[in-house]
Amino acid sequence: MVSPTVKNCSIEKIKSSLRLVGKENIISQNNVFSEFPCITDNESIQMISYLEHLDWDSTFFEFECYHVKPIRLARKVFNDKKIGVMVKKSMSILKDTSATFVSSRLSLNDDDWIRQLEANGFQSYDWSCTLRASHSTLIPREDGILKKVRSAEESDIWNLMEISAIAFYRDRFHTDKQFGKQRADAMHAIWIKNLFYSDNSRVYVIEEGNQIGGYITLHEKFGSNQSEEKDELRIGLIAVHPKYSRRGLGGALLDKAISDVIDEHRTLSVGTQLNNTAAMRLYQKRGLKPSDYQTTLHYWFKSPTKLA
Predict the structure, then answer these.
(1) Euclidean distance between CA atoms 39 and 14, whole angstroms
(2) What stretch(es) of the chain map to CATH 3.40.630.30?
(3) Which of 9, 225, 266, 296 is the most exposed place for a label (fewest CB within 10 A)?
(4) What's the pLDDT score for residue 201?
(5) How far is CA 240 from each of CA 9, 65, 73, 214, rounded to the nearest angstrom?
(6) How many other C-beta atoms are found inside a 10 Å radius of the C-beta of residue 143?
(7) What is the pLDDT of residue 73?
(8) 285 — phi, psi (to 5°)?
(9) β-sheet bridge partners, residue 71
(10) How many CB atoms lie within 10 A of CB 147?
(11) In CATH, what number does 5-121 get?
(12) Torsion of CA 80, 82, 85, 91, to 10 degrees
């Protein structure tokens, strides 16, 4: 058996390999291939352990954050021993970069990688489902949008940040106590502010009385080739202030997303935690169907300075 090797692979060579399986969008000039070796299964490069420095996360949390994932370039079953060696070599490289934190978000179909990451100390902190539907199969509410939904304005930003700071308490950044509650709360607040100013996002709000009761963000998603027209809208964040829960605001925000997708003849996708049963029911009631299940694993090389 050929052992995994550490190689300096040129970006163009990797791009050429990925193009064969329609995954060329994974590569960019800002990723790890321009800075670090990549881990390959053998000289034929049938599998890559892709290491990515998370710039935004590292700056925000004030320690070095990375992400590791497999890229399969061949329809081949790799045994656990070979994958285990690739994982160990990946972690060795990351340790040498003074990494503090590493995450890996994987489809549950990648059970071989999940097993090896867990065997090397990773722990799962999030289980989620991606749901999708085309414009022709979405089911809008017959009575339309009953609540007032509009595009967010700059004057709404502080309200959006307030909602974000309290609405996502069940996410992996809160479940993993190493991050610290204050930073985990603040992260989503800054996230929604950045999305508001992003050219690639739409932010809608819903009013309850004279107050912002919740919001939803939609993101353009490219098809297999970035030169093609964008064909999918993805719900990034959807949040309702707790004091306005159970009033149908979340459903009305979803209806706005469905309206955009139907008008533009596109596809809608969304990811949600598996334990968020209310959201799962709502999405499926509107015609979205599960297309993939994922888990996100965390590994700490060292405990960060206490943040909260």
Answers:
(1) 12
(2) 5-121, 132-295
(3) 225
(4) 93
(5) 46, 29, 41, 4
(6) 7
(7) 65
(8) -65, -30
(9) 48
(10) 19
(11) 3.40.630.30
(12) -70
Write out the E strands in the chain. Answer: 5-7, 38-40, 47-53, 65-72, 101-107, 123-134, 148-151, 201-208, 211-221, 232-240, 267-273, 289-300
Backbone angles phi, psi at 296, to 5 degrees: -115, 125
Residue with tokens 């996002």: 201
Averaged pLDDT in 10-residue chunks for the chain of 308 residues: 43 47 39 43 60 90 91 68 85 88 94 93 96 94 71 95 90 92 90 92 92 94 51 94 89 94 95 92 96 96 69
Distance CA 204, CA 218 (A): 8
- CA distances 188 to 60, 156, 162, 220, Å, are 11, 15, 9, 20
What are the φ and ψ backbone dihedral angles of 128, each rounded to 5 degrees? Answer: -135, 170
- pLDDT of the residue at 86: 84
Q: Residue 14 is which amino acid?
A: I
Closest CA to 178 of 52, 294, 65, 50: 65
Give the per-residue pLDDT at 203. Answer: 97
Q: Tokens at residue 277, please? A: 């049963």
Tokens 């297309």, located at residue: 291
The pLDDT assigned to 84 comes to 87
CATH of domain 132-295: 3.40.630.30
Q: Hey, what amino acid is at 110?
A: D
The per-residue b/e assignment along 227-266, b for 16 or more CB within 10 angstroms, e otherwise, is eeeeebbbbbbbbbbeebeeeebbbbbbbbbbbbbeeeeb
Q: How far apart are CA 58 and CA 86, in angstroms?
A: 24
The CA dihedral of 140, 257, 221, 161, to the nearest 10 degrees, is -150
Proportion of the chain in helix, strand, coil states, percent, rounded to 5: 35, 30, 35
CA dist., res. 192 & res. 213, Å (int): 15
Separation of alpha carbons 180 and 173, rounded Å:
8
